[in-house]
């Protein structure tokens, strides 16, 4: 095992941590040396995540993060926000690389963090300084290559930003965006709640946090970096849907009235032509979850709508797996890039059909 | 059984027909005298719709519509569009009252029919003359009371129009509306298709007919009658979701920038305060399918969004059961009104929980 | 409202309580005067069970049971076992009739109670004395007619006993029975648990308490009363299935080798020919959940298997809704009988299709 | 690509063919050179199986099998029974190795084939001669190593046989076995049918072919080879459950009355201690689908039941993914063994969680 990257996973009992392990345990250049958690301490990984039974002898250990990262090359953080920020402050000077799946270091704007996460950030300077690099390869692959600290994007944020990014890249995006995105229940995490109670979830559709979801500033930040007009705004309605995995987003966007189908086709091709995980859907079909569920792939597409005055509507669709490209998979993609590996390592396999 | 209304059901093997029977067989003032179909001819109703086993001795009969309605007071039509228009022409002069669940007589504008249904209407004059009364009690109860021919609204059309109607009634609705509505699989009917194949449907989310769904002109027609500005437009994206029953709609609408929460609360109360099947949801919760599934009830609600220039956004939510209030249930509600019965007959019972 | 039966519901926030209310609120001879609970105290019923919004102004009240039943004619108890037994002791001398949905007063054998429920019964004499009448109309309708205290059967117990009862009634049942019954998630109650967490439940099948489920003695008690040989035994494996409502049971039973198809057809007809809620399925189809879900109806059927020595196998199938005929619905059926009402009151309507 | 095994897939549009491709396209020693089908001819693989979009340029071709296998080293056959037998006769002398997923060459007894498949086998001599080797590595790995023609086991057959095999291997299995196994909807194939129509499947449980399923003789054949008493019999009830993937089997078996827990623990360990894909579950948990869904792994376990006369009951549980270990995955496992590769190639990865 010499020369392998030594990885530690902080917070291993959630679905994000589980998905990271599902990949890292089979990564040719990685050795997972330690997994910490506050739940299930002492249990074998396979006794909590049944799919991993027999694939590792590691157990969940409870220990301070600073101790956990000793000797490790990289720490994957799979914890809730707020908790994560404190842990990062404990290990930021230890020399370990960090790949963080929480929302704590994604934003550059501490005021937006305070507004949408409901607490003041404990280290706002780290946000404005960009201490962490936003881990969306399609947005900033080169920055990731040079990074030591990665803030891996949120699930809705990835779906919606990737759906609209070609418009931003082409300089066509401005004005208000209206988005509805429906998500599977695994996005709510591994702890049972009334909103994931099977009898109520299995035949239900409902919204939560409409116009208030914490991914709103994250999406706008990405789109502006990609080229959206600074005054682009986003009204986002999340919907809880009765499936375990997957997000499907519909975004109504405004482009100049003169925009043509050809122009948009070129914009999507230009944005994603060489991206290994983005599938631009055309030819009558539109993106759907079933084609990407369980995998790191994303389906994106659009429909050109009517002209209203000086603007024309484009409806952008995008679909991905919230735990893979919307979470653990993307974090490993960025990790691969940061380490100089082929970014597809452990991620190239397709999802299930059906 | 003297004095009971004699009802015939034309097209009884689909889910609409089944739901009509589930109600009419228990209606205190109705006797179902005949059920026709082209499938399952000769079978007992309970051998096709298992839930009705033992509750009626009727069988499916194949016969011309003109013959089927002989001696009947009312014909419920539960057939596909195009087929229905032909049947109506065969029975329109027979004196029988008609309650039609298809889309063939809902629109007043024959050009819109041709555009969205893909065929010329065989009797366009009947559309422009308003031969059929649009059977949405919340929109035009008095007209229904005087009607003999009812065109019962579509499932998406009911959900979306009821979600937005308070804004229209209050004179606040204009400009483009952006709607995403997710629907259960029963909306696709009783015939197996690839889009309702369980392995692909159970864990999927996808769109179909985005911006092209045939309910678009129906919704606009209703909203304009209710008071929406004539130039109000609608961009609608339907989404297929993995549940059997229910529709959840999210509509982004524009109102004047000065509009307040109090004004909207009053608008919803004014529109629906005395409606027996509309539940205005407030107090932190938003509409969801689970509360209305299996019943004729509708949940509606809204969230007030940001001001952009001269306009302010309101996001309207609505949820109902596509086969009941979005189909058969509403058709019976209108039938009850037309016949002078209590409109809640057979419809007052709540849905299941959970 | 004079002359109506005054009913109080003790424990109204669970799914059993909710289903009782769904029926009793529409019962022509009942007035629900009070609902108690320990959760959601002070909330309106419709703010907890969304389907009941607007249908009652009652709120959940916390008060001692003895106080709650004051002035009431009947108390429906919808609480967990153990808790229930204590409440019953508090109200048993108050004169109020009791319909109990828990397992605390179903068994006659206190030792079996202690073994399967894991605690000594606080009033074992009440069990052996038969203070409560077992509320399964198909088994003992006449006893229910004379009862004042009803112990309503369990969901698995109802499904399995009704599936096998024709064999017992015909004197054909003896030897070991092997049963697998799969249940929907609502059977686990309204409180979120890991076994009802949507991401894990939605695509899973698993067993729990195999050979140890507390309904085993209840089923044997019923079958022996119906005529099964005293040494009949039952090995029962419950399975958790990914649907909200319904139980489907498969029971392998032994009958004499000489038993014929005609004999069995006659046995099922004899047992259930006049039962209002039992549908004997034949003609190539077998029972399934979809035909009875949401209703008080039961589908039963059988397949005759091979001869092995002196015995022949019969495989019995049965399907019902765990919350209706397997719970609240059956409790109201027994209540109707006890009060001298038509036993079908509020229960005659079919379930949904689909 | 020199030195790679050239594989052709005959019948590539079903779920079995899709799952084979999902693996073979990433197999380090295999090149898929051709895919035939009768549906979707000319389409790209990724336009039918959306998960494979972009991963291969192959299209579905229609051509005679004899032509399709020209130049290939191995043909994977993923077609219905009956059709398959004819194709095999066309290519059996071509020199190509065959891995067949159908039921046409699994049985040694042509009479059993005729009885359970409803047709005479076109080449009964091939059955009795054992022209094909039954591809269940846990049963006959050494025979597979020497084979050129593999008949890959059925999904129910694999689940049930693997659940009971330790008893057979230990010489403990005799008498009648009673099995109920619930399956996901993908087992019914890619063509929409009424039994996989989402509205009816999503909330249903039902049986089909009770006591008559064609996997019965296949299971008995395996168990007898493993050491079951020749008079062991099987009564099997399949159940359709509302999930896309997975089978959960419960088998009631008889062992000598003296059998102990320790003896059985040893039997399971002895049977499966070195098997790469079998997980023996103990310690209070029992097998469940969620731990193996999407993977080639199997969970097996048991509960010791009561003594009845000279026998004692053991209830055996087993769970797997019907399309992977119950289908395509197992066929590749056998292929790997036959070719002298590590049998885990492309199969070692765990399934999803959740």
From TrEMBL, chains A, B, C, D:
Keywords in alphabetical order: Amino-acid biosynthesis, Arginine biosynthesis, Cytoplasm, NADP, Oxidoreductase
Record localization: Cytoplasm
GO CC field: cytoplasm
One Pfam family hit: Semialdhyde_dhC_1
Active site residues per record: 155
Annotated ranges, domain Semialdehyde dehydrogenase NAD-binding: 6-147
Function field: Catalyzes the NADPH-dependent reduction of N-acetyl-5-glutamyl phosphate to yield N-acetyl-L-glutamate 5-semialdehyde.
Similarity comment: Belongs to the NAGSA dehydrogenase family. Type 1 subfamily.
Record protein name field: N-acetyl-gamma-glutamyl-phosphate reductase
Source organism per UniProt: Cystobacter fuscus (strain ATCC 25194 / DSM 2262 / NBRC 100088 / M29)
Designated gene of the protein: argC
């Amino acid at each position: 095992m010499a020369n392998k990257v030594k990885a530690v996973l902080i917070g291993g009992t959630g679905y994000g941590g589980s998905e990271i392990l599902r990949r890292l345990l089979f990564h040719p250049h990685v050795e997972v040396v330690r997994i910490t958690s506050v739940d299930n301490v002492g249990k074998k990984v396979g006794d909590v995540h049944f799919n991993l039974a027999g694939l590792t002898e590691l157990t969940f250990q409870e220990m301070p993060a600073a101790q956990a990262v000793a000797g490790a090359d990289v720490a994957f953080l799979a914890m809730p926000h707020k908790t994560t920020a404190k842990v990062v402050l404990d290990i930021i000077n230890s020399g370990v690389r960090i790949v963080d799946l929480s929302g704590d270091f994604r934003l550059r704007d501490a005021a937006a963090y305070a507004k949408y996460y409901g607490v003041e950030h404990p280290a706002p300077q780290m946000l404005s300084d960009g201490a962490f690099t936003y881990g969306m390869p399609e947005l900033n692959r080169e920055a990731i290559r040079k990074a030591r600290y990665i803030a891996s994007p949120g699930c809705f944020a990835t779906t919606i930003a990737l759906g609209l990014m070609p418009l931003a890249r082409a300089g066509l995006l401005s004005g208000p965006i209206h988005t509805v995105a429906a998500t599977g229940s695994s996005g709510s995490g591994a702890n049972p709640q009334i909103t994931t109670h099977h009898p109520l979830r299995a035949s239900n559709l409902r919204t939560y946090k409409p116009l208030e979801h914490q991914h709103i500033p994250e999406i706008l930040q990405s789109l502006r970096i990609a080229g959206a007009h600074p005054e682009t705004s986003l009204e986002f309605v999340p919907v809880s849907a009765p499936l375990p995995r997957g997000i499907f987003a519909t975004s109504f966007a405004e482009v100049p009235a003169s925009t043509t189908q050809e122009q948009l086709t070129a914009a999507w091709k230009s944005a994603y032509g060489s991206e290994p995980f983005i599938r631009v859907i055309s030819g009558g079909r539109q993106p759907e979850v079933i084609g990407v569920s369980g995998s790191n792939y994303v389906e994106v597409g659009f429909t050109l709508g009517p002209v209203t005055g000086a603007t024309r509507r484009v409806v952008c669709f995008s679909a991905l797996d919230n735990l893979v490209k919307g979470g653990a998979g993307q974090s490993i993609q960025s990790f691969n890039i940061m380490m100089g590996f082929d970014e597809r390592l452990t991620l190239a396999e397709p999802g299930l059909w059906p």
